[in-house]
């Protein structure tokens, strides 16, 4: 995870991916065939990486927390340099892959409150106080 932000009422997990060739993930823009399959595999790999980063970070943060520390909702923000249409695909697949809400009757609490996938334009709209710039 690139950033873990502790707010008074929430914990934010923020992952940032600045792609050199974002079109390499856009399987929708090519005709069916080998290139489309390669791009789809890249997108699936990206989804899997984002899922594992959330799970690993959640587990490590849980293990580090003092016993008397109250639980705070975790919100997962993924900042990706992809176009708006592809963000929707990643957002939908990531939400489907992450067990944010209790996965069964034995679960006593959710792992996360929400998951949002944004690009820099949407980030600026959603979080105007948190400006972005490349270093």
Count the beta strands.
4
Q: How big a fraction of the residues is strand?
A: 15-25%
What kind of sheet is the major sheet?
4 strands, mixed
The structural class is alpha/beta
Low-confidence stretches: none
What oligomeric state do these chains adopt? single chain
**Mean of the pLDDT scores?**
86
Helix content: 25-40%
The span between the termini is 18 Å
Shape: globular
Enumerate how many helices there are, as a single number: 3
Taking Cα atoms only, what radius of gyration do you get, to the nearest Å? Answer: 16 Å
How are the strands ordered across the major sheet? Answer: 1-2-3-4
- N-to-C SSE string, H for helix and E for strand: EEHEHEH
């Amino acid at each position: 995870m690139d950033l873990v932000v502790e707010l008074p009422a929430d914990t934010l997990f923020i992952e940032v991916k600045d792609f050199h060739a974002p079109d390499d993930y856009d399987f929708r823009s090519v005709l069916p065939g080998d290139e489309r399959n390669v791009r789809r595999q890249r997108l699936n790999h990206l989804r899997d990486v984002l899922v594992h980063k959330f799970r690993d970070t959640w587990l490590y943060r849980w293990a580090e927390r003092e016993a008397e520390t109250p639980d705070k909702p975790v919100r997962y923000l993924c900042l990706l340099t992809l176009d708006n249409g592809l963000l929707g695909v990643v957002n939908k697949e990531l939400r489907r892959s992450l067990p944010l809400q209790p996965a069964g009757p034995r679960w006593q609490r959710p792992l996360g409150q929400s998951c949002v996938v944004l690009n820099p334009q949407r980030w600026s709209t959603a979080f105007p106080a948190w400006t972005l710039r490349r270093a």
